[in-house]
Amino acid sequence: MSKVFWSGEISQHSLGRLLDAAGLSSVVSENHLTAVKIHFGEEGNLGYVRPKYARTVSQRIKALGAKPFLTDANTIYVGARANAVDHALVALKHGFTVEEAGAPVLIADGLRGNAGVDVKVDLKHFKTVSVANAVYYADSLVFISHFKGHEISGFGGALKNAGMGCATREGKYKQHNSVVPKVAREACTSCGACLSWCPSSALKIDGSDGFITLDPAKCVGCGECILSCPSEVFSIPWSDAASDVQEKMMEYAFGAVRGKKCIYINFVNYVTKFCDCYATKDKPFFDEIGLAVSTDPVAVDVACAEAVNKEFGGDFFRHIFPSIDYTVQLDYAERIGLGTRRYELINV
Question: Do the beta carbons of residue 309 and residue 327 sit within 8 Å?
Answer without folding.
Answer: no
